[in-house]
């Protein structure tokens, strides 16, 4: 798929929303909507550079998928309509697709639809609907389950992203999100984030091999060392719980995560108070919410959309 990003007279990126609905193997229909400006095009382009170079259909293991989705059980997705906001190359859609949803949708601002389509070619005809556009602005209908993992904190307006999650969740349906936490990330904020502000301006290959790789190697050794330590001791060290979690993966995955962190021009660290404020939204069903401090450096949260008239 060709990119549909042009430039306006004042230099701001313009986006044309593209919908690619996979109707049958080898076929798709495209609808090009009205052009609209998006302040997140630069971030989306940076991530697309990374995702389009990933060879595997998913960079995540089944265990990672289940960890990110908990408390939503994979079996509960069977026969349901499911939407991902910010799907990258389809790495999470790949695992959701294995759960046999009745309808599987995705919205992505970056030029990764062709890559995602290839990775999801195993799905039956008529199940997959991929849309290219700004997730904070599009409306692609209501779904039983809507999730947004690792995306809200890269938006210029994370709150608008959460509004989009709720907007696409049907009344009574479930929503689920994951974001970087402001809490537990002091080392990353003080050391990695200043590097990101510089590295995100470099050519992607310089960032990937000249910045991300040299930083990955010592952290890889650190994480593997923590894995060998008693859990309670390791968890008290900087990024201890997260490092033990990621230590199960190989160097390639470490490098992927490092590049992912350093290539984006926009990253926010979301506080517990902010997430709790989102969960008090009038469209959220009271008593349905959960908030988990995952690996002591991120927030995993969700709930149900209030039933109309309730």
Structural overview:
There is one protein chain. The protein is built from 11 helices and 10 strands. The protein is an alpha/beta fold. The protein has 2 domains: 5-181 and 270-304, Vaccinia Virus protein VP39 (Rossmann fold, 3-Layer(aba) Sandwich); 186-263, no CATH class. Strands 1, 2, 3, 4, 5, 6, 7, 8, 9 and 10 form a 10-stranded mixed sheet that branches. Helix 1 packs antiparallel against helix 10 and helix 7 packs across helix 10. The chain is globular, with a radius of gyration of 19 Å. The N and C termini lie far apart (44 Å). Mean pLDDT is 88; it is low at 1-35.
Radius of gyration: 19 Å
What is the CATH architecture descriptor of the largest domain? Answer: 3-Layer(aba) Sandwich
Mean pLDDT value: 88
**How much of the residues is beta strand, in percent?**
15-25%
Query: Helix/strand-derived class?
Result: alpha/beta
Number of alpha- plus pi-helical segments: 11
Which terms would index this structure?
single chain, alpha/beta, Rossmann fold, 11 helices, globular
Short description:
The chain has helices at 41-51, 62-69, 91-97, 113-119, 158-168, 186-199, 204-227, 231-235, 240-246, 251-263, 272-279; strands at residues 5-7, 13-24, 27-37, 81-85, 103-108, 128-132, 143-149, 169-180, 290-294, 298-304. The protein is α/β, with parallel strands linked by helices and 310 residues long.
Per-chain topology:
Blueprint: E1 5-7, E2 13-24, E3 27-37, H1 41-51, H2 62-69, E4 81-85, H3 91-97, E5 103-108, H4 113-119, E6 128-132, E7 143-149, H5 158-168, E8 169-180, H6 186-199, H7 204-227, H8 231-235, H9 240-246, H10 251-263, H11 272-279, E9 290-294, E10 298-304
Helix pairs in contact: 1-10, 7-9, 7-10
């Amino acid at each position: 798929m060709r990119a549909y990003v042009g430039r306006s007279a004042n230099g701001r990126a313009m986006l044309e929303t593209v919908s690619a609905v996979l109707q049958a193997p080898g076929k798709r229909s495209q609808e090009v909507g009205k052009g609209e400006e998006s302040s997140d095009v630069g971030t989306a382009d940076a991530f697309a550079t990374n995702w389009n170079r990933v060879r595997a259909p998913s960079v995540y293991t089944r265990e990672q998928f289940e960890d990110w989705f908990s408390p939503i059980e994979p079996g509960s997705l069977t026969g349901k309509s499911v939407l991902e906001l910010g799907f990258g190359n389809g790495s999470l859609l790949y695992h959701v697709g294995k759960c046999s949803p009745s309808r599987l949708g995705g919205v992505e601002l970056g030029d990764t639809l062709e890559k995602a389509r290839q990775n999801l070619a195993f799905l039956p005809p008529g199940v997959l609907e991929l849309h290219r556009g700004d997730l904070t602005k599009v409306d692609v209908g209501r779904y039983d389950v809507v999730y947004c993992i690792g995306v809200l904190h890269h938006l210029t307006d994370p709150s608008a992203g959460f509004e989009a999650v709720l907007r696409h969740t049907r009344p009574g349906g479930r929503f689920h999100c994951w974001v970087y936490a402001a809490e537990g990330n002091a080392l990353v904020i003080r050391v990695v984030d200043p590097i990101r502000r510089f590295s995100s301006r470099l050519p992607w290959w310089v960032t990937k091999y000249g910045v991300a790789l040299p930083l990955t190697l010592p952290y890889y050794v650190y994480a593997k060392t923590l894995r060998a330590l008693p859990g309670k001791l390791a968890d008290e060290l900087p990024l201890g719980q997260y490092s033990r979690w990621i230590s199960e993966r190989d160097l390639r995955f470490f490098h992927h995560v490092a590049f992912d962190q350093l290539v984006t021009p926009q990253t926010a660290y979301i506080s517990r108070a902010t997430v709790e404020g989102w969960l008090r939204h009038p469209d959220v069903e009271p008593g349905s919410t959960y908030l988990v401090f995952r690996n002591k450096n991120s927030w995993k949260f969700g709930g149900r959309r209030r039933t109309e008239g309730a």
